[in-house]
Amino acid sequence: MATTAVRPAVSLPMRPNVISICLKETKYEFLKSLRLPMYSVSTLVFPVMFYVLFGLIMGRQMIGGIGTSTYLIPAYGTFGVMGASLFGTAAGLASERGFGWLQMKKATPMPPFAYFLAKVVMSMIFSTADVLLLLILGSVFGGVHLSAMVSVKLLLTLVAGSLPFCAMGLAIGYFAGPTSAPAFINVFHLPMSFCSGLWVPIMFLPKFIQKIAIFLPSYHLSQLALRLVGAGNGTPARTHWEALIGFAMICLGIAWAGHQRDQKANG
Amino acid sequence: MGKEMRMATLQTVPATPRSAPFTAALMSKVSKNYGAVRALKNFDLAVRAGRLTAVLGPNGAGKTTAIKLLLGLARPTSGRVSVFGGDPTVLATHLRVGAMLQVGRVPETLRVREHIDLFSSYYARPLPMAQTLAAAGIEDLRERKFGDLSGGQKQRVLFALAICGDPDLLFLDEPTVGLDVEARHLLWDEIRQLLGRGKTIVLTTHYLEEADALADRVVVINKGSIIAEGTPAAIKARTAGKKIRCSTRLTATVVKALPGVVDAQDDRGAMVIHTSRPESVLRELLGRDLEISGIEVTGAGLEEAFLALTQEKAN
């Protein structure tokens, strides 16, 4: 064909543009997930539904010195970004690993990091949407008055704080079977949410659960977010960030071990 | 490495698609173990540029392992694998290679056009979208979501993903498995067109017929070792070509003694005969048993071919 004929026969192959690969990979990862109601609907609907029920319809009292509708934005925001990140990374990775799709992609010149980056960025887009929805609902229907500065800080904190959960998702994705990842994720997601005080505020939980909470990344992220709306527990932000970074490192280590295990099994 | 790559590229210029056979990929004395399982044993394979090499074998023979090694997805336990004279794991090699692997599930919510757009972006000089769609015969599926396609259509899309980067070397791992006859023949036509453009193709299959229809060279493997290699005609000549099934009062011992009969067995009240010369055997059978009935002549399956080849090897 003409394309082959005009090609200079002696030239070595050029490299394709890595940035444009990453952009395309992310774009299609996003479209793929958006069209999966299991992901897009449950990621966006559950936190919002909880917020409408408990924050807007039922929430008339004060928690930790602020209105319920304000308190629950950081709480369900944390719950939302955790779900978006865990499901956004683990479910796809486990299935694409298990069913050979990842291998098909690895046989191409695709830079492997583009694959993972796309999943993380896609999750962050859904996390952003989650927090924005809560902020809008709260300020329009819940009488929440947060300054633009606080709102932006809250958004950035929650979205940056979603990264450790992306790392956790990768770890799960490397060890879960192709179809069992969602079940695995729920085993972590729901108890972690409860014990971190994302559904029932932490001070109303039994003492022993409060003691468990400090070992949970979701607790630390929610505390970072609650601080911004004036409902923190007084622990310095630095401590929470350190806990989140440490947790992310452990998860990345586990994901790496899973990757090595796959390499051994396949190659 | 540079020199060999240049030669291989020259070879792919379609003006002389089937001239001097350069080696596009090479496996030499390759063994591959997965734990205690020896997937490949002392395996040698030379893939000639511009030709189609078929790797033929039953499930579990080591075909997919060989492909994975050539794609750099796996490393040999011992021995050497090179593609275009270089390391199969590096980007420069991957840029010139396309692969259609056996995939259990492909992301179903993306459209055909979107899958191709993404895979095309991985390569330096991809084919234009329209050309990829045409070469895979899927123009009309462009806007369809992958999950809505039939089995044959899915295979054609995977084929499109393998060729969209306009690779010089193409690996097709059981491309027609699970396809009906019509879909299989369509894919064969598309593969032949690529050969016409001077591409090098390695195809694995467990259909003897497929290797026969497409390959310049057939490598028959079983249990990780090569048991025969040569042109399709040579391979066929070495296997008992046809299977005759009939009801006859002749005994297996008598039939086995007929000239051209490789094997004869009773099978649920019928006689199954393997032969390389079905015409003369039929003439004999009809002459000796006037009441013979229910005659069926079919091409021997690969199982029979293996039987013949492995027996030959044992002798």
Characterise this structure.
The complex is a heterodimer of chains A (267) and B (315). Chain A has twelve helices and two strands; from the N terminus they run αααββααααααααα. Chain A is mainly alpha-helical. In chain A, a hairpin with a 2-residue loop joins strand 1 and strand 2 (66-67). In chain A, helix 3 packs antiparallel against helix 4, helix 8 runs parallel beside helix 12 and helix 11 (217-228) runs antiparallel to helix 12 (237-266). The longest helix of chain A is centred in the N-terminal third of the chain and has 31 residues, at 68-98. In chain B, the strands form three sheets. A six-stranded mixed β-sheet of chain B has the order 5-6-7-3-8-9, sandwiched between helices. Chain B folds into two domains: 2-237, Rossmann fold, CATH 3.40.50; 240-299, Alpha-Beta Plaits (2-Layer Sandwich). By secondary structure, chain B is α/β, with parallel strands linked by helices. Classes of the chains: A mainly alpha (267), B alpha/beta (315). Chains A and B meet through helix 1, helix 2, helix 4 and helix 5 of A and helix 1, helix 3, strand 5 and helix 4 of B.
Oligomer: heterodimer
Number of strands of chain B: 13
CATH-level-4 superfamily name of the largest domain in chain B:
P-loop containing nucleotide triphosphate hydrolases
- Percent helix range of chain B: 25-40%
Keywords summarizing the entry:
heterodimer, A: 267 residues, mainly alpha, two-stranded antiparallel ribbon, 1% strand, B: 315 residues, Rossmann fold, Alpha-Beta Plaits, 6-stranded mixed β-sheet, disordered N terminus
Task: Break the fold down into its secondary structure elements and pairings.
The complex is a heterodimer of chains A (267) and B (315).
Chain A: H1 2-6, H2 18-34, H3 37-57, E1 62-63, E2 66-67, H4 68-98, H5 101-106, H6 112-141, H7 148-160, H8 163-175, H9 181-195, H10 207-213, H11 217-228, H12 237-266
Antiparallel strand pairs in A: 1-2
Helix pairs in contact in A: 2-6, 3-4, 3-6, 4-6, 4-8, 4-9, 4-11, 6-7, 7-11, 8-12, 11-12
Chain B: H1 2-11, E1 23-34, E2 37-48, E3 52-56, H2 63-70, E4 78-83, H3 91-94, E5 97-100, H4 112-121, H5 129-136, H6 151-163, E6 169-173, H7 181-196, E7 200-205, H8 208-214, E8 217-222, E9 225-230, H9 232-238, E10 242-247, H10 252-256, E11 261-267, E12 270-275, H11 278-288, E13 293-299, H12 302-314
Parallel strand pairs in B: 3-7, 3-8, 5-6, 6-7
Antiparallel strand pairs in B: 1-2, 1-4, 8-9, 10-12, 10-13, 11-12
